[in-house]
């Protein structure tokens, strides 16, 4: 009887620690850094997805977000992932470019006229970039969103003369903005995202740029008086996780995580588009004036942008072929929808 009891006990223990496939199931806590503040539209969607993942995997897989820049700027977050301190990051294209810079071709200034153009181009090119990230040991999840990027300022920004005379935040790791500002003769002040709010408060910078929902979530809007009607570009992002972290999961749990992540990304894009419109209304109600961008400013930005597209391709930020792909798909969409 003692041998029989031992066998039964062994079977029970094995059943408790094994999955349906018969392999041991280990609990995995995936730690992810992000600049998105707690309670922001981004975190609302991401937190719901994390709760769903925990529920559907019976807590075998849990996600822990370090929001609000707790792990530093996006460069810091990516470095910490590479160093094994955390497992992933929910980042803008700036963070993505720390892994593969060529993805910035999807965020070129003055490239797109509508969000639908962005969707059409990005949907066709995203698998291409996922393969590039995979080869570097990263899982690039489905596309997230920041939205249309506008200038916000403490001083008037109606003319090029206005814009040229004020110090403007320049994300230190953003080669596109750095090149664009140089082309336009703007006074860029390189800073990390966490430094923008205190720099607007102190007057070190008199202007910044971002989507309306980002300006509200990060409280930048309370330090400015004006916002340009013309968007400079359309901001994207995504969650990236080291492949070796995902390889710890069972095939079933990994499939669950990927399916919920894909659904969350789709919800996020829809949520952020709605939130950007609501944030714009909030900013206007709080006294921020929407400045109608003059034809002079639009032309200056359009001319500079086209030059920047080619210059960055020549510099190797992305290839000429990748730039051609973006333009091809954009023009393809315009031809299909032309009335």
Brief overview, please?
The protein is built from 13 helices and 9 strands.
Question: What brief labels describe this structure?
Answer:
7-stranded mixed β-sheet; two-stranded parallel sheet; 20% strand; alpha/beta; 9 strands; D-Maltodextrin-Binding Protein, domain 2; disordered N terminus; 13 helices; 339 residues
Notes on the structure:
With 339 residues, this protein is α/β, with parallel strands linked by helices. It has a single domain, classed as D-Maltodextrin-Binding Protein, domain 2. The protein has 13 helices and 9 strands. The chain has helices at 2-17, 41-56, 74-82, 93-97, 115-135, 160-165, 175-184, 193-202, 212-217, 243-246, 251-285, 295-314, 320-337, and strands at 28-34, 61-66, 88-92, 138-153, 167-171, 187-191, 207-210, 226-242, 289-291. Strands 1, 2, 3, 4, 7, 8 and 9 form a 7-stranded mixed beta sheet that branches. Helix 7 (175-184) links the parallel strand 5 and strand 6. The longest helix has 35 residues, at 251-285. It is globular. The N and C termini lie far apart (84 Å).
Helix content: 40-55%
Radius of gyration of CA atoms, rounded to a whole number: 23 Å
> How many strands in all?
9
Mean pLDDT: 92
State the helix count.
13
* CATH class category name: Alpha Beta
General form: globular
Write the layout of secondary structure elements.
Layout: H1 2-17, E1 28-34, H2 41-56, E2 61-66, H3 74-82, E3 88-92, H4 93-97, H5 115-135, E4 138-153, H6 160-165, E5 167-171, H7 175-184, E6 187-191, H8 193-202, E7 207-210, H9 212-217, E8 226-242, H10 243-246, H11 251-285, E9 289-291, H12 295-314, H13 320-337
Parallel strand pairs: 1-2, 1-3, 5-6, 8-9
Antiparallel strand pairs: 3-8, 4-7, 4-8
Helix pairs in contact: 2-11, 5-13, 7-12
């Amino acid at each position: 009887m003692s041998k029989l009891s031992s066998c039964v006990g062994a079977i029970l223990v094995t059943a408790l620690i094994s999955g349906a496939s018969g392999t041991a199931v280990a609990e995995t806590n995936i730690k992810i850094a992000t600049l998105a503040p707690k309670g922001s539209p981004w975190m609302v969607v991401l937190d719901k997805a994390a709760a769903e993942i925990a529920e559907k995997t019976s807590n075998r897989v849990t996600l822990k977000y370090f929001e609000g820049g707790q792990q530093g700027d996006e460069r810091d977050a990516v470095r910490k992932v590479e160093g094994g301190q955390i497992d992933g990051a929910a980042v803008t294209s700036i963070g993505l470019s720390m892994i593969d810079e060529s993805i910035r071709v999807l965020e070129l200034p003055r490239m797109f006229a509508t969000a639908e153009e962005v969707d059409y181009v990005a949907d066709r090119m995203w698998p291409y970039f996922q393969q590039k990230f995979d080869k570097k040991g990263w899982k690039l999840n489905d596309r997230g969103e920041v939205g249309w990027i506008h200038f916000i300022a403490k001083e008037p920004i109606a003319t090029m003369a206005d814009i040229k005379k004020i110090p403007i935040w320049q994300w230190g790791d953003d080669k596109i903005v750095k090149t664009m500002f140089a082309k336009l003769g703007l006074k860029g002040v390189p800073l990390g995202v966490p430094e923008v709010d205190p720099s607007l408060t102190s007057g070190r910078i008199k202007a910044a740029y971002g989507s309306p929902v980002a300006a509200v979530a990060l409280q930048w809007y309370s330090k400015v008086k004006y916002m340009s009607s013309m968007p400079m570009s359309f901001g994207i992002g995504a969650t990236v996780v080291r492949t070796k972290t995902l390889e710890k999961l069972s095939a079933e749990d990994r499939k669950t995580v990927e399916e919920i992540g894909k659904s969350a990304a789709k919800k996020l894009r829809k949520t952020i588009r709605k939130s950007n419109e609501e944030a714009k209304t909030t900013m206007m109600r709080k006294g921020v004036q929407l400045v109608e961008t003059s034809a002079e400013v639009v032309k200056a930005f359009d001319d500079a942008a086209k030059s920047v597209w080619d210059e960055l391709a020549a510099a190797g930020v992305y290839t000429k072929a990748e730039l051609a792909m973006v333009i091809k798909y954009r023009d393809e969409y315009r031809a299909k929808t032309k009335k």
